[in-house]
Design goal:
With 241 residues, this protein is α/β, with parallel strands linked by helices. The protein contains seven helices and 13 strands. Helix 2 packs parallel to helix 7. The protein is elongated.
């Protein structure tokens, strides 16, 4: 069943008004008709199962029933991703949203080659749209937030201190894996730090450890930046159940 996101103010009593591109998609792409059923989500974790009541002035849907979205992980994961080259960030955003990440923060590190500068605002807007599309496709109960600005590594570390815990995959860590990390974890939020091509410098890793971020191993092979975040998030959510 097709799923779309709406703002809470679009929900009034037993009706939901769908507008803009989503309404256009329902009418012209899906070629939906009155009486057909769709799923709408308020972006706050509630799914509404609806029947299309009218296709005039947007799409008006009548609520049949509602329930908490079952696809949202209980543990909120924030990905702190070092800026990669080319369009790798778009792939990272899309796949990590599908997996269940709660928030993604682009981070400028010492080995980052990419500098967004004047393009930053447009890039962030595009990334947010990619996150929204991935959330729709994967049946999420919310649209993960793309942080509104790129953070320096030191800023990201300071922000991560507000979370329950944080990890940083590091090729020189040999003992602590994600499973052993999860066994000792009892919080509600986890930060995951992933470096750009070339990884983090030893000074950055040490700075992260000094800030309380725990180094973990992802195995005996060194993963690309576009693979490491997906792998860490997938293992985390699997081990957390």
């Amino acid at each position: 069943m097709p799923k779309f996101f709406v703002e809470p103010h679009q929900i009034k009593e037993n009706l939901i008004q769908v507008t803009g591109e989503d309404a256009k998609h329902i009418k012209t792409v899906l070629r939906s008709r009155e009486g057909e059923e769709i799923t709408l989500c308020d972006g706050l974790g509630t799914d509404y199962f609806c029947r299309i009541a009218s296709l005039e002035e947007g799409v008006t849907a009548e609520i049949i029933s509602s329930e908490p979205c079952r696809s949202e992980p209980k543990t909120k994961i924030t990905l702190y991703q070092g800026l990669p080259k080319a369009d790798k960030m778009e792939l990272i955003m899309q796949k990590c949203v599908e997996l269940g990440v709660d928030r993604i923060v682009a981070v400028s590190t010492e080995r980052c080659i990419v500098k967004l500068d004047k393009k930053e605002e447009k890039k962030l807007e595009r990334w947010q749209k990619i996150a929204e599309a991935a959330a729709k496709q994967s049946g999420r109960g919310k649209i993960p937030e793309i942080a509104p600005k790129v953070l320096r590594f030191s800023q990201a570390l300071a922000e991560a201190k507000t979370l329950s815990s944080a990890i940083i995959p590091y090729e020189k860590e040999e003992n602590r894996g994600i499973r052993s990390f999860v066994e000792g974890f009892s919080g509600a939020e986890i930060g995951v730090f992933i470096g750009p091509e070339g990884g983090f410098t030893e000074e950055e890793v040490q700075g992260a450890m000094d800030a309380g971020v725990l180094p973990v191993t992802l195995g005996k092979r060194i993963l690309r930046t576009e693979t490491a975040g997906m792998t860490a998030i997938a293992i985390l959510l699997y081990e957390l159940g």
